[in-house]
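Section 5: illustrative case.
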């Protein structure tokens, strides 16, 4: 069930702090309330709660810096993937916090987010941004060099139908990597269609959202779903907003 109240609360809490850029933790709370598949995340403010959260989620787990000042977490040495024991969690907690302080001594640090390790699927990027003329625009591409070097992406204005979403996916040059080449099994394209539609609907329902980035989203074989392993939501400047309303 979609939980609009939860989304409003997360958006309001960022607004109250005067923040336009939401943390991964907040962004994932929002998309998960909108029924977009993502990792459950726990925010651990100290080492004992990090250990407890890891135990609850079951190993292996992933730990990431949780700071409203650090949006590109890897750049700050803030991502540890596939930790499988309490010793590793304790060590990673210290390393991540220390790395973040070094990276940005002024950064407010909330702690470390603990999430389940998702076995690597095929990587895609799903995004949304506000085009100044046309409004909410969805983006789809394969991860890594496909987007960064080859700019192999497709765009559509939101909202989109399932057929539109299917076209967006078919349009990219790297499509054969998803449909299955040389005996590879096809990826779960239906779930990607569903996520693309939902991302568009989320931005339309909550029009203070100016950007959504699910980078990367792991997609598994047909019938096995997809999971946004990273999420970032950015809000509009408020005065602009008020004028438009
Ligand atoms: P950044 O803020 O640097 O973009 P990400 O959250 O995207 O950080 O993490 C960096 C990389 O770590 C991702 O591209 C992905 O390959 C891997 N990763 C992140 N979260 C998970 C997870 N929960 N399970 C498995 N791998 C993950
Ligand atoms: Mg990322």
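Designed sequence:
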């Amino acid at each position: 069930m979609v939980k609009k109240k939860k989304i409003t609360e997360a958006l309001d809490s960022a607004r109250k702090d005067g923040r336009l850029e939401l943390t991964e933790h907040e962004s994932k709370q929002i998309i998960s309330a909108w029924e977009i598949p993502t990792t459950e995340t726990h925010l651990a403010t100290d080492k004992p709660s990090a250990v407890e959260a890891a135990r609850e989620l079951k190993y292996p787990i992933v730990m990431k810096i949780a700071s409203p000042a650090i949006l590109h977490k890897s750049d700050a040495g803030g991502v540890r993937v596939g930790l499988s024991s309490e010793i590793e969690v304790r060590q990673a907690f210290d390393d991540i916090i220390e790395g973040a302080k070094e990276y940005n001594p002024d950064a407010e640090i909330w702690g470390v987010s603990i999430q389940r390790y998702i076995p690597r699927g095929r990587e895609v990027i799903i995004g949304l941004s506000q085009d100044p003329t046309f409004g909410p625009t969805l983006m789809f591409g394969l991860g890594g060099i496909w987007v960064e070097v080859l700019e192999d992406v497709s765009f559509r204005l939101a909202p989109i139908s399932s057929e539109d979403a299917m076209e967006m996916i078919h349009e990219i040059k790297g499509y054969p990597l998803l449909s299955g080449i040389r005996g590879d099994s096809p990826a779960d394209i239906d779930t990607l269609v569903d996520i693309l539609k939902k991302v568009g609907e989320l931005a339309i329902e909550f029009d203070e959202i100016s950007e959504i980035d699910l980078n990367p989203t792991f997609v598994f074989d047909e019938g096995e779903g997809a999971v946004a392993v990273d999420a970032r939501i950015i809000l509009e400047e408020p005065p602009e907003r008020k004028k438009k309303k």
